[in-house]
Write a structure and sequence with these properties.
The complex is a heterodimer of chains A (77) and B (450). Chain A has 77 residues and is an all-alpha fold. Chain A has three helices and no strands. With 450 residues, chain B is mainly α. Chain B has 20 helices and no strands. Chain B has helices spanning 17-34, 38-46, 49-57, 60-73, 78-103, 107-115, 117-147, 153-168, 173-184, 190-196, 201-210, 219-230, 235-248, 255-279, 281-285, 295-341, 351-372, 379-405, 408-411, 418-443. Classes of the chains: A mainly alpha (77), B mainly alpha (450). At the A-B interface, helix 1, helix 2 and helix 3 of A face helix 1, helix 6, helix 7, helix 18 and helix 20 of B.
């Protein structure tokens, strides 16, 4: 890997010039740069996956109501 | 100088201070890889997110769940059960390492990009709600633990907030991670407490080999089972470990070490959890009713059995558990917020560059701390409910995770294989089942003996 090639050659010191920045670009992979990530784009959600997501969403809502019910019962015995 | 954003030519990526700091960390990793004796050094450099997430999840309510388990049932079924729950946690968390290494994106960012904002918003609401409730319980634990030493509640909460702020505002991921790891080692103070409880080694061995005695099947058992699962597998862990691994700069080459990091964390956390259950087993042996115990109550009740030193260590352990979890959970909220709003979201950012990120982190912690200080707030119910809520909100999070880690477009050769998918689906079904049983028992309490 690129970072391995550079590994034992580069000093750990503050970077001050544009030329010095080249080692940063060699050490990091392209998507590791904070401000230059290319959007991945959306994946296609098939009907099966959509149904599963909706079922789980309803499950969480129902369970949340159950928790709220239990708390209410505990607070008002 | 290191915080300055350097200009770059148009065709090359723009280099920020965050990138510079991360690149320095990566350089040390590369140097360790080339060194003949670099294996240990490499391990030292690459452990972090896995240990932090696992010991972070051994938080105040989790340790109290383990303590309640030991006090209610003594050594038996629950000891090997705790080990199995951490195996489940390892199966789940390992996938976040691969996701981070392959995509260099946090979990919230990935859900928003691949599923769109509609489903992303749901995932974020689950996370925000769960995190806020959990953060409140961490401060309850800190307050209770420091209360054992006579520290007043307001001072305890302010001290905890000050520590969180100091750790976070180091503005360097590496420093933050190392302080977190140092703090995490205190989770192991439950081991000497367990030793001081003088457990019968034969009984412990029998418990691990035979899973006996099995507890009576009633509502208390069910709640403790769910709480122990909730103590090891929760949504914030997915968001935290993936985002922290991205912030650390983990790449495809580091996946083996990422697995080792996660396995080490799971092992240490399991040992600490089991030690806590063993430490409180004298309460079971002496028929002490611990059903309504909170943090400091366990420490006080243990005084006759483990002495002043043991009880103090127990209280300190609860404080540490709360503090580390507050740091990691608040960080997971801040990472998710930054990823979704496209604000800078790195612990390598300066305050000036990353102030929205740091603000979310500190406000989340501050809000939870404030709730704890509200007079007559129903804190005991929040503690009781928080792990159960974590179990209930876990299935959708696991589905997002499974779909993402099977997405070959973004994962390439790091996508899940058949075995990993069988294990993931098994864990998901187990957690769904646990949640459903809990729901049925809540609506029809007569089905189980109380």
């Amino acid at each position: 890997m690129r970072e391995e090639k550079r590994g034992n050659k580069l000093p750990l010191q503050p970077v001050t010039t544009e030329q010095d920045l080249t080692w940063v670009r060699e050490v990091l992979e392209p998507d590791q740069f904070a401000e230059s990530k290319a959007p991945l784009g959306r994946r296609r959600l098939g009907p099966g996956l959509l149904v599963l997501l909706w079922v789980l969403r309803i499950y969480v809502l129902v369970m949340t109501v159950l928790i709220a019910y239990q708390v209410w019962q505990a607070l008002h015995p | 100088m290191a915080h300055t954003v350097m200009p770059s030519s148009q065709e090359l990526p723009r280099v920020t201070s965050e990138d510079l700091k991360r690149a320095r960390d990566r350089l040390r990793v590369a140097q360790a890889r080339r060194h003949r004796w670099g294996k240990l050094s490499l391990l030292w450099l690459l452990i972090g997110p896995g240990v932090l997430v696992m010991l972070g999840e051994n938080d105040a309510p989790s340790m109290l769940s383990y303590a309640a388990t030991g006090a209610t049932y003594g050594p038996g079924f629950f000891l090997p059960f705790i080990l199995v729950t951490f195996l489940m946690a390892f199966i789940v968390q390992e996938m976040t390492v691969r996701l981070a290494a392959a995509t260099h994106r946090g979990h919230a960012e990935l859900i928003f990009e691949r599923f769109g904002p509609f489903w992303g918003a749901f995932a974020l609401v689950d996370l925000a709600l769960g995190n806020l409730m959990t953060l409140v319980t961490e401060f309850i634990g800190i307050r209770a633990g420091l209360g054992f030493f006579g520290v007043p509640p307001v001072l305890a909460v302010l001290l905890a907030l000050a520590v969180i702020a100091l750790v976070v505002l180091t503005r360097r991921y590496w420093t933050w991670e190392r302080i977190g790891l140092a703090l995490a080692t205190f989770n192991l103070v439950f081991i000497p407490v367990a030793v001081l409880a003088h457990p019968d080694p034969g009984q412990l061995l029998a418990a691990f080999l035979t899973w006996q005695p099995v507890p009576r099947w009633d509502q208390t058992t069910l709640l403790l089972l769910l709480a122990d699962i909730g103590a090891t597998v929760t949504p914030w862990m997915l968001f935290f470990q993936q985002s922290a691994s991205v912030d650390k700069g983990v790449t495809g080459q580091d996946i083996a070490h990422g697995r080792l990091d996660t396995a080490l964390g799971a092992l240490l956390a399991a040992v600490a959890g089991i030690a806590t259950a063993i430490a409180t087993s004298p309460l079971f042996a002496h028929h002490v009713n611990a059903s309504s115990f909170a943090g400091a109550d366990f420490a006080r009740a243990l005084l006759p059995y483990v002495g002043r030193v043991g009880a103090s260590l127990f209280a300190l352990g609860i404080v540490e558990a709360g503090l580390l979890a507050a740091i990691t959970i608040a960080s997971s909220s801040a990472y998710a917020f930054g990823e979704v709003t496209r604000q800078p979201h790195s612990l390598n950012r300066s305050w000036r560059e990353g102030w929205p990120f740091y603000c979310v982190l500190l406000v989340a912690a501050g809000l939870a701390a404030a709730v704890v200080l509200i007079p007559n707030a129903p804190l005991e119910f929040i503690v009781l409910i928080v792990n159960v809520y974590a179990v209930l909100s876990m299935p959708p999070a696991l589905v997002f995770l499974t779909v993402l880690v099977n997405d070959r477009e973004i994962m390439g050769e790091q996508a899940n294989g058949s075995l990993a998918n069988v294990l993931t689906v098994t864990v998901t079904l187990l957690i769904c089942l646990a949640g459903l049983v809990y729901g049925i028992a809540t609506v029809f309490p007569g089905l189980l003996p109380s």
